[in-house]
Amino acid sequence: MIQTDILIIGAGPTGLFTVFEAGLLKLKCHLIDALPQPGGQCSEIYPKKPIYDIPAYPEILAGDLTHKLMEQIKQFEPGFTLGERADTIDKQDDGTFIVTTNKGTKHHAKVVAIAGGLGSFEPRKPLISNIADFEDKGVEYIIKEPELYRDKKVVISGGGDSALDWAIFLSDVASEVTLIHRRNEFRGALDSVEKAQELKNLGKINIITPAEVKGIIGTDKVTGVAVEKKGEDAFIIDTDHFIPLFGLSPKLGPIGNWGLEIEKNAIKVNNALDYQTNIPGIYAIGDVNTYPGKLKLILCGFHEATLMCQSAYKRIFPDKKYVMKYTTVGGVQGFDGTKKEAPKAVVKAIQ
Amino acid sequence: MQDINIKITDRNGETHEVVAPTDMAMNLMEVVRSYELAEEGTIGICGGMAMCASCQCYVKSNHELPEMTDDEDAMLAEAFNVEDNSRLGCQIQMTPEMDGLEVELAPES
After folding, report:
1. pLDDT tens digit string along A218-228?
2. Residue A68 confidence (pLDDT) above 90
3. Contacts with A, B 6-65, CB within 8 Å
4. Where are the domains of chain A?
5. Which residue, of A160, A321, A337, B81, has the greatest Cβ tally within 10 A?
6. Do B49 and A45 make contact, defined as CB atoms within 8 angstroms?
7. How many alpha carbons lie under 13 Å from residue A289 in its C-beta half-sphere?
């Protein structure tokens, strides 16, 4: 079981900065995120887009902000459980918490800080009435293990990078790859689009456009999909797998069932004090929380994280005296043995 | 700067006549949020970058709308419940020309 002082759910900018503020208080952090990389929306949705309201950065790309936060927190050696979603929470008799992910990884923490943004990123599922019946029976929204498709027939739908890239990749693995998109045009890196064209010309990928998968055929597993091409009658393509790749969208998900007070799809917190939720020991910071006057801004998340850490410290060490110390005065002492501090002035007579 | 009147049909089918300012660089998605016509967290998820389709709407009036950018076009190519009159609300700026605009919010997806 993973042991930590503060378990942070969500590795976006607010979650990452929490590691820094906690580290100054000598509290260790571990982060869980459903995405395979840290950064949250900043790395998943808009890494190449500029942000203009981070104090002291007239302009910074969202991806660069993530890199700089990772650099800023590295001496506090945060742990990461990535690609897993926090599913359940159990409060122990001693007031600590055990959080278990969808893959069964258990985390034991003195305090839990939910910095989950708009929720965990889940695949967007196309509106096909019987699709739920075939999930994991030939319908996969995420490709986890490409070998699953070895010598199988595969139909992929979608028109973005992931649909293109997987169609290209699987053309060497699967016995047959069909890519279906609602438009004739694909949106992706130029390389990917050209490669897909080349593979189509070689007959290694079938591309059907403009068309949509409207139904799934099969009894206990997928045996085919019903495809509708604009202006034509539907036809059936035999396939072993149907992989819809329509991107990810955030959903509050299981956190919504943790007994926390929810309002407007966000977690209510005490903003007059410390951003604690209705369950003592569980805090919510950043875009995931709500209170009167809430603004979903990264800079507000940083502030909330800072106050939350002070409160977490008092909860963990109720009898220990502490006052906030400026980093300029106290420096930054890492858990890895490093120390950053202001250079000392010399006192020396000038002859 | 003048305010404009627009009609927004929410996801429950109820039509609201609302007043939108034209001098605050607001877009239709933000107008919907300011009047709380869709539940917070179900609209404007990407913040207005045409990178999700949570503000998709159907344009019912014959207004000449700003031309679609490649980003909006590509996003609608992957969204669900898309019709010929689908647009992303975040890409429709509130300008005096939009006075009388009538839209219906697409279902949440």
Report:
1. 999 999 999 99
2. yes
3. 39-42, 45-46, 49, 51-52, 54
4. 2-121+249-340, 125-246
5. A160
6. yes
7. 34
